[in-house]
From TrEMBL:
<dbReference type="InterPro" id="IPR001100">
    <property type="entry name" value="Pyr_nuc-diS_OxRdtase"/>
</dbReference>
<keyword id="KW-0547">Nucleotide-binding</keyword>
<dbReference type="GO" id="GO:0050660">
    <property type="term" value="F:flavin adenine dinucleotide binding"/>
</dbReference>
<feature type="binding site">
    <location>
        <position position="201"/>
    </location>
    <ligand>
        <name>NAD(+)</name>
    </ligand>
</feature>
<comment type="similarity">
    <text>Belongs to the class-I pyridine nucleotide-disulfide oxidoreductase family.</text>
</comment>
<dbReference type="InterPro" id="IPR050151">
    <property type="entry name" value="Class-I_Pyr_Nuc-Dis_Oxidored"/>
</dbReference>
<feature type="active site" description="Proton acceptor">
    <location>
        <position position="441"/>
    </location>
</feature>
<feature type="binding site">
    <location>
        <position position="49"/>
    </location>
    <ligand>
        <name>FAD</name>
    </ligand>
</feature>
<keyword id="KW-0285">Flavoprotein</keyword>
<dbReference type="InterPro" id="IPR006258">
    <property type="entry name" value="Lipoamide_DH"/>
</dbReference>
<feature type="domain" description="FAD/NAD(P)-binding">
    <location>
        <begin position="3"/>
        <end position="323"/>
    </location>
</feature>
<feature type="binding site">
    <location>
        <position position="308"/>
    </location>
    <ligand>
        <name>FAD</name>
    </ligand>
</feature>
<dbReference type="InterPro" id="IPR016156">
    <property type="entry name" value="FAD/NAD-linked_Rdtase_dimer_sf"/>
</dbReference>
<protein>
    <recommendedName>
        <fullName>Dihydrolipoyl dehydrogenase</fullName>
        <ecNumber>1.8.1.4</ecNumber>
    </recommendedName>
</protein>
<keyword id="KW-0676">Redox-active center</keyword>
<feature type="binding site">
    <location>
        <position position="112"/>
    </location>
    <ligand>
        <name>FAD</name>
    </ligand>
</feature>
<feature type="domain" description="Pyridine nucleotide-disulphide oxidoreductase dimerisation">
    <location>
        <begin position="343"/>
        <end position="451"/>
    </location>
</feature>
Length: 462
């Protein structure tokens, strides 16, 4: 029962770490208490995208006339939509099972708890405890939906994301608290399915981490699609004693009561760091996160942590990159610390949002003199042909040295376009180099080149 590396948790942090560890020649085991693939594959990234695909197909069907087509008796089957999403998640989890076998990684099903002396106790479903030893123990136990004290989740009327993607019946009316990526993705899905959706957001903007131009454009599109949005507002309490819910919302104008069948709380995450032995080992935790150095070592030698349990963006690709960096460092490779300033963030509502680097406001606050270019998809041939003219690409450069400070996109398919900006920034590309990189025509990606051209007064199609 001795391993070189034991990973606790098999999300995109844990399973990727295990695969890279095995590639590097370590005898590796991964411990999982629920389903292989973690939140991302089972209850996060993937099943939500499956739901959103159904919403997109349905939205296209509702507008077939726009494409010169005819379709009659268009309808949806909510149960089947949910079933498809759950099926996609299960298929992905099976895929991880295959990858574990392929990479000769032992999968130990049970709940892991770290102990002093580089040991892990695993309690299986029957309550049997087995002790394992490892030279390196990597904690990747992830996170769950955060519960606000005034919005306790009963899982039926006040729900978190797990229930939101597996409801037995479609609610007629829904309140979504929080307009971050998770909140707006569900708001969009349910609105497309025909639910009457109201978003309540505490901040003055929707998708508050995004550039203000993107937030404004997205707000317009939410409203156009029929979603009601209450900004600068907070749900103070929720009464679930009746048939549905009645939420008391504090707004700038006073108190308002909102009635709905269901309230979805999408106000962030709470890390899974309780009862995993951190105190017994003496691992330092601060503000709900395990404290680690640039290579994910905790304060106790031999114990590491990666993914949602450590500070940094709580995203699947970040968790995976952290795990790879962690084991490459253990293996003695000359690996670089992750640049958290160059992590792309994506929101898969309609329109999609994708961004990397500084917003205009943050760049100004940092004291840069800016060159900004914007190119609307309304001027893109591909967007016109596809009937997706909404949105734009906005690029921000430092006027003095030409550093690409930020890139912000809103529109159809932009989540598949942002990697160009991430790579460009990683390679310290200047605006002129992007301009001289020939982009294929007709593609949505031409808008990146044109936005850069706009920043340097060389735009062609505006
Ligand atoms: C609705 C939703 C949509 C999302 N969409 C995206 C997206 O589009 N793109 C993106 O990048 N990110 C997205 N995320 C975030 C992403 O899912 C997380 O950042 C990512 O899953 C974190 O990976 P992780 O490996 O740290 O943890 P997790 O994926 O949370 O995995 C942790 C695993 O550890 C297991 N575990 C916990 N405790 C123990 C224990 N004691 N013993 C054994 N096993 C244990 C859990 O069962 C779980 O399987 C989304 C999240 C949600 C909720």
């Amino acid at each position: 029962m001795k391993y070189d590396v034991i990973v606790i948790g098999s999300g995109p942090g844990g399973y990727v770490t295990a695969i890279r560890a095995s590639q590097l020649g370590f005898k590796t085991a991964v411990i999982e208490k629920e389903s292989l693939g973690g939140i991302c594959l089972n209850w996060g990234c993937i099943p939500t995208k499956a739901l959103l695909k159904s919403a997109q197909v349905y939205d296209y069907l509702k507008h077939v006339d726009d494409y010169g087509l005819k379709a009659e008796a268009i309808d949806k089957d909510f149960e089947a939509v949910i079933k498809r999403s759950r099926g996609v998640a299960q298929g992905m989890s099976k895929g991880i099972e295959f990858l574990m076998k392929k990479n000769k990684i032992d999968v130990i099903m049970g709940t892991g708890k770290v102990k002093p002396g580089k040991k892990v106790d695993v309690t299986d479903a029957d309550g049997k405890v087995t002790e394992y030893d490892a030279d390196h123990i990597i904690i990747a136990t992830g996170a769950r939906s955060r519960e606000l004290p005034n919005l306790p989740q009963d899982g039926k009327k006040v729900i978190g994301y797990r229930q939101a993607m597996s409801l037995p019946e479609q609610p007629k009316k829904m309140i979504v608290v929080g307009s971050g990526a998770i909140g707006v993705e569900f708001a969009h899905f349910y609105n497309s399915m025909g639910t009457d959706v109201t978003i309540v957001e505490f901040m003055p903007n929707v998708v508050p981490v995004e550039d203000e131009d993107v937030s404004k454009a997205f707000l317009n599109s939410l409203k156009k699609s029929g979603i009601k949005v209450m900004l600068n507002s907070a749900v103070e309490s929720v009464d679930t004693s009746g048939k549905g819910v009645v939420a008391t919302v504090k707004t700038a104008k006073g108190e308002e009561k909102l009635e709905a069948d269901i309230l979805l709380s999408a106000v962030g995450i709470k890390t899974n760091i309780e009862n995993i032995g951190l105190e017994d080992v003496g691992i330092v935790v601060d503000r709900d996160k395990i404290i680690v150095n640039d290579f994910y070592q905790t304060n106790i030698p031999g114990y590491y942590a990666i993914g949602d349990v450590v500070p940094g963006q709580a995203l699947a690709h970040v968790a995976s990159a952290e795990g790879i960096t962690c084991v490459e460092k253990i293996a003695g490779l000359h690996t670089e610390p992750i640049d958290y300033g160059n992590i792309p963030g994506c929101t898969y509502a309609s329109p999609e949002i994708a961004s990397v680097g500084l917003t205009e406001k943050a760049a100004k606050e940092a004291g840069y003199e800016l060159k900004i270019g914007k190119f609307p998809f309304s001027a893109s041939g591909k967007a016109s042909a596809a009937g997706n003219k909404e949105g734009f690409v906005k690029v921000i450069f430092d006027a003095k040295y030409g550093e690409w400070l930020g890139c912000h996109m809103i529109g159809a398919g932009v989540t598949d376009m942002i990697a160009e900006a991430v790579l460009g920034r990683k390679l310290e590309t200047t605006g002129h180099e992007v301009l001289k990189t020939v982009h294929p025509h007709p593609t949505m990606s031409e808008a990146v080149m044109e936005a850069v051209a706009a920043a340097y007064d060389e735009v062609i199609h505006l």
